Amino acid sequence: MSSQLVITSPDKESTVVVDQGELISYSKDGEELIHQKGDRGWRNADTEMFPIIGPTEANDFIVNTPRGGAIQDQHGLLRELSYRVSNQTVDSLDFEKKYVKNTTVKNSKYPEKSPKESLSWPYSFEFRKKFRLSDDALTILFEIKGEPGMPFMLGYHPAFKLSGQHTEIFESGSKQISLQDILDVGSIAFPALNTDELSLIKKEGYHIKITTKGFNNFMLWTEVPNMVCIEPITAYPYTGEKALGENLFRKCSDMDVFEVLIKPYR
Fold first, then answer.
1. Alpha-carbon distance 79 to 108, whole Å?
2. I need a labelling partner for 123 at 20 to 30 A (CA). Which of 100, 180, 200, 242 fits?
3. Given phi > 0 = left and psi -120 to 50 = alpha, else beta, which region is 124?
4. Domain regions of the chain by residue span
């Protein structure tokens, strides 16, 4: 039985396909905008980074919290949990994950890519991901219901198709970023900070404007010219410090809401 769910815009010109919470397709007028799993570059199409962003290996995979050290692999344990569908309509989909504090979670990177077999976090939380498709754009909402005061970082990690010809540019305010700029930075990702909007400009097909609420930063990553990850983030983690500093974390206020709007345009 297929786990793929499809939603359609009111004008029937846009279609979104989601597989177990992962955005695997967003097409408009027949043009696919999302990097396809199996193509060069990355094995996924999107994911979330929570409750931390960035690598933890340099600190022996330990993240410091007010409740002590927590074992976390790169980008956190949320991706190791399974989404549950909580609501579906013709043009919307809602998913959620729940975590109970100190529950051990199997690390899918073990043993090939990590020495840590299991991960845990000393706080309980609920994480909701909601898709809303209109004629003009796809809105993705993230709702975090955590214990008040829980420290967290949040990043959204979608991948977009590129031509493979190195012709795309990225605009953030008055600043332009080339694909080569992103390739040159490598694994630490290119920072575009203190902004809520970033555009992917193409020679052919739809351009894409990404507008966010609550994040205020982006980082861009790719190692190939046929795709790029444009990632809204609450903080840029690659500061050169061994441990993720306290200043990179926010604190839960019972319910925290973040928004990403993906708008194709000519």
1. 9
2. 242
3. beta
4. 4-265
Quick one: tokens of 80? 């190791």
**Residue 51, H or E segment:** none
Nearest 5 degrees, angle CA 31-CA 84-CA 260? 45
Amino acid residing at 258: F
CA 246 – CA 249 distance, rounded (Å): 6
Longest dimension (CA), the chain: 51
Could you give the C-alpha distances from 116 to 65, 74, 108, 140, 238, in angstroms and in order?
19, 11, 10, 32, 21
Strands (E) located in 134-179:
138-146, 151-152, 155-156, 159-161, 169-172, 175-178
178-236: per-residue pLDDT in tens?
Answer: 999 999 999 999 999 999 999 999 999 999 999 999 999 999 999 999 999 999 999 99
Of 253, 20, 19, nearest to 144 (Cα)? Answer: 253
CATH architecture for residues 4-265: Distorted Sandwich (2.70)
Cβ-contact 216, 235 below 8 angstroms: no
